Amino acid sequence: MDRTYAEAINILESRRRSVRPETSHATNLLSESLPKLEAGSPRLKGVPSIDGMAEWLQQIGHSASELSKLNIIHVAGTKGKGSTCSFTESILRAHGRRTGYPRKTGLYTSPHLIVPEERIRINSKPLNGTLFAKYFFELYDCLPQLQAPLDPSRPVLQRGPRYLQLFALLAFHVFLREQVDVAIVETHAGGEYDATNVIRKPVVTAITTLGLDHAAMLGSTLDSIAWHKAGIFKAGATALTVTQDDMAASALRKRAAEKGVDLRVVERDDRLPQNATQLCPSVQRTNGSLAVAAAEAWLSRNAPSQGLTADDVRKGVEQWTWPGRFQVVRHGLNTWFLDSAHNEMSVRIAAQWYAEAASAASKQSSKTARVLVFAHINELRDSTALLASLAQALRDTEASIRHAIFTTYPEVSGGEGCSGDETLALFEPVWRQYHPEGEVTFHSTVRQALEAAKRQGDQYDEVHTLITGSQHLVGPALKMLQEEG
Predict the structure, then answer these.
(1) Residue 11: closest CA among 1, 19, 21
(2) How open is the CA angle 250-255-258, to the nearest 5 degrees?
(3) pLDDT for residue 20
(4) Are strands 204-207 and 182-186 parallel, antiparallel or unpaired?
(5) Which residues fall in the annotated binding site for Mg(2+)?
(6) pLDDT value at position 31?
(7) Please, which residues bridge with residue 79 across strands?
(8) pTM of the predicted structure, to 2 decimals
């Protein structure tokens, strides 16, 4: 076998499920531990992602208890997980630059925006291709299941890890081999049955803002979702969250009590720099405040004599970047506003951010066209409901979108991706409920959609385009914009 980066990615991609199971194969133990809720109870489909993780860790040479060496900060939530994790890493890295500890940070997030190795970072830098391949094939040699095609019908341990499970295993392996002083780990979707919840002894656990998402897996009520997310709480670990909806807050407090932990609600932190663009829109202050609390709690356990200073916080925020989240790219007549929001809570925030940021960027004497580029094709979410939330939020902010462009995920003609033609056909009537005027067009590739947005500059002095709905749209779009300089 050619043990290259490309081959490692090919094997990883081969571990994706082609379709999601329609029925549950959860073990009796897991089924019995599900919350007994009157409505909206979780409907587990297939085998919970945590099944097999401890055994596969053993196969690659690591025990679940060995993960405690990583001094983990474990983060779950609906909105802002990635930002909170990366803010935490950046603040601790700034502290380490001043004091010498932590000298090396590990960060695991998902999904990636442009390239897969973005998911696993050392001192904020994604693994280079050589290291990625090296560590991946160390796992491959220990997991003979990877040498056969993925067969979801086989018993868990025989079929081997799926895509996200394999990525989590790889992250743990990399962090242990690289001897990081701290690992900040984002859950994939839930918490209780998430593959990352093989972590038994985190130092800090944190729950970001909760909302309705992944209802097919986590249930259709906030208390059910909170029950799942709070599954990362562990006795002996600091437990943090932000101000939540009353139902979610009650469920979090109940689970914290069941697990024997004291849950602290984090308020806005005054040490965050007041005028930092990294903290716009305001939801980023919530994420940043939780990150400061997580970093401070981690230091109090691992370096109690080296407290977090306001300067650490400031420098951590100022050096922070997270492509594809509330990002503005300017090029000629075009200003692109990119946010990879992909649930109803997130797209409403993206709409408000766009309205404010685009208004601030407009030149008083210019005729400005406002354009939307949207794509979302996902069997776990209602794409039309997502678009409806976005359309209503944009209408309520009076963003005056002139041209709505709907597209699918392939970057260029003939590229890989899902066609989504049936979904696209449903978008126009949903959009026109809230925006009856203006143009609506459909394009089969991301490049065609961007070119259509640019053509608005033929009639206007400047074009402000919001690109949102999915990482699978924002990632390729950002890549193309970067290639154009």
Answers:
(1) 1
(2) 130
(3) 58
(4) unpaired
(5) 110, 186, 214
(6) 42
(7) 209
(8) 0.89
Of 471, 465, 433, which is closest to residue 449 (Cα–Cα)?
Answer: 465
Distance in angstroms (rounded) separating the CA atoms of residues 234 and 232: 6
Q: What is the pLDDT of residue 418?
A: 45
Q: Which two tokens stand for residue 443?
A: 């394009």
The answer to whether 108 and 171 have CB atoms below 8 angstroms apart is yes
Return the beta strands (E) in 25-158 as ranges: 72-76, 105-108, 120-122, 125-126
Instruction: Please give the single-letter amino acid code of residue 286.
Output: T
pLDDT at 25: 46
- The low-confidence residues of the chain, meaning pLDDT below 70, are 1, 19-47, 213-220, 364-365, 379-381, 411-423
Chain centroid, CA 161 distance in Å? 21
The radius of gyration of the chain from alpha carbons, rounded to an integer in Å, stands at 22
Q: Which residues are documented as binding site for ATP?
A: 325, 339
pLDDT in tens, 161-171: 999 999 999 99
Per the annotation, binding residues are 110, 186, 214, 325, 339
Q: Tell me what pLDDT residue 209 has.
A: 94
* Dist. CA 400–CA 418, nearest whole Å: 30
pLDDT at 214: 56
What is the arrangement of strands in the sheet containing 368-374, beginning at the earlier edge strand? Answer: 327-331, 334-339, 462-468, 368-374, 403-407, 439-443
Domains of the chain: 5-318 (3.40.1190.10), 327-483 (3.90.190.20)
Query: Do the beta carbons of residue 160 and residue 64 sit within 8 Å?
Result: no
